[in-house]
Amino acid sequence: MRLATAFFCRPTPKFIFACVTSSLLTLLFAWYNCRIPRAALPVLAQRDDNLDQLNPDPQIYCADLVSKALREREDQEYAEEKEREQKLQANCPKGIPFQPIDVIVNGGETKVEGRLDSDSDEPYVPFSFVKNYFEIYGDVQKVDNKKVLEWRHSYSEIHESKHKYDPKGPFLWFQSYHVEGRQRVLCISGREEVPVSSQWNPKGHFYPIQIAQYGLSHYSMFQVERNSRGKVRVFEDGEAGPESEQNWVANSPNKVENIYDKERNSRVIKFFTSDLHGEGVVLHLDSSTKEYILSFNLKLFGPGRVSVSIETNNAVQHVIHYTNDNKLIDVEGNDIFLGLGSQEGWRKITRNLDTDLRKGLRIIYGLSKKPKTTSKLIVTDIQSIILHGSGMIDNITLSRTARVDFFMAAADWLVRYQDDKGGWPISVKRKILDGLEIKPGWYSAMAQGQAMSLLTRAYYFTKNTTYLKAALRATSLYRVASENGGVRATFMDKYHWYEEYPTTPSLYVLNGFIYSLIGLHDLTLAAPKDQLKDALELFNDGMKSLKKLLLMFDAGFGTFYDLRHVSFQAAPNLARWDYHTLHVSLLHFLSGIDNDPLFKTTAVRWTGYTKGKRAKHN
Hints:
Layout: H1 2-8, H2 13-32, H3 49-54, H4 58-91, E1 98-105, E2 110-117, E3 122-124, H5 127-134, E4 137-143, E5 146-152, E6 185-188, E7 195-197, H6 208-224, E8 233-236, E9 248-249, E10 255-261, E11 266-272, E12 281-287, E13 293-312, E14 317-323, E15 330-332, E16 335-339, E17 347-352, H7 353-365, H8 372-375, E18 379-399, H9 403-417, E19 430-433, E20 436-438, H10 445-462, H11 465-473, E21 488-491, E22 495-498, H12 510-526, H13 533-549, H14 564-567, H15 577-593, H16 597-609
Parallel strand pairs: 14-16
Antiparallel strand pairs: 1-2, 2-3, 4-5, 6-7, 8-18, 9-12, 10-11, 11-18, 12-18, 13-14, 13-17, 13-18, 15-16, 19-20, 21-22
């Protein structure tokens, strides 16, 4: 049959090879092993099937053996090939037959393209649409070498302290705050040494809430970092005598001299330059560590400045100039200018070079909302200090932190600028709604409260009653109605509320009210018994109002920032997630100082909203 097939079918290479091999093997076998003597063959033989089976034709027998062997080999190769194909199919991902499908949202209000699993009829909607539609958060991330979709209902953190509140310790969770790094901080004033806010006025103003938070954050970090503040590197303190003059480069007519100063009762460096723009008097620092806090004592006899040359990781050199004028912040090319004011006499200057550089770079590169250009810049080298003008300088140091200097600067600002009403007026207008704005000169109960919290801590730290007296005076505005220039509102002619933004009608902002209560609470713990009555009455009155009105802020899936939908009959103002989690964190704090279960149960329910839980429907 195989030979017959060869005549009627197109032979394959494998078939030809088998035939040739079979023929050769048959000939060899017949030649060497199958030769039979002619005499042994019968002249006439009748065919016997049994004899054929016992004595087969050698050529046919050998051909059958070869053919059988080839078939077995082909079968084995086929089986192996089949097994390889099955393994490959097993390792390949099974395809899901997705088909495009139009997703019609709200009767045609929006249409997006989705996908339909034709096996299960399960529809799929793009996550980018879901994020915007339901205001959720998430992205694709790689975890354990596998891509996963991380889905978050909120983007903010809830703070819940495990320790009993200590009015002398960190303020709430403010050790995690970096106030000067906020985009709404234009700079740290060289004259006042506190933040200048660009909120509501891009030219800058002093915002008491921001200043109090700046002080509280540094005080809190000081409490946390007590044993890990690092060393202070001294570059010049004058005590080496005339030999220290060799550390300075002063080419004629510029001069530098180590002298004894009676006012400071120590040796200092006296300097003179012929103008404010030449090479100046130079002290090389060449510091490549992460010690960015520059401190020195300075006394100028006229126009002058202290300049610091800095290099960043993009190999660009910038110079920060501290001048004795009232300029807030300005730039010229790669140079940044900050005014120290025109104060006479000796003054200690403490600056965070990294902060000053970044604030200047934001102006150089443009006031973008997300300054990507500056976020990756790192100070790699603080190269030198250059002096211009005429004056004296002492105690030039670099360190990692100066928490005490920064929080005391904020406390001193509050003492210095408290007015005769006991408050800190805000110098910019605040627009709330169309047709409703607060004119400049308004007070904020939140500012009053956070100022009390900072001033009482400054009192604990220094034992100076000046700070305590300022905190006690700050309670006066709590008793003055908002329409009369104070901060007190009254809900339904019964419940007193201390307003963050004193409007008429009242807003009833929740977080600002609670901060005002915390300030009163701190004051009641710090004041002597004969002076705490007023603060205690105001605190108890406010807590009574909070317990009655708190649940009005519950939206069933989040919280309201204020009650304008009640007092103004305006559209509700839902709290962003960062404000919602702030509400929850503040309730956790209140549950630690007041055992009313309302605060804890409400905090637990509001925490559920951050996980997607909602109030039950009817």
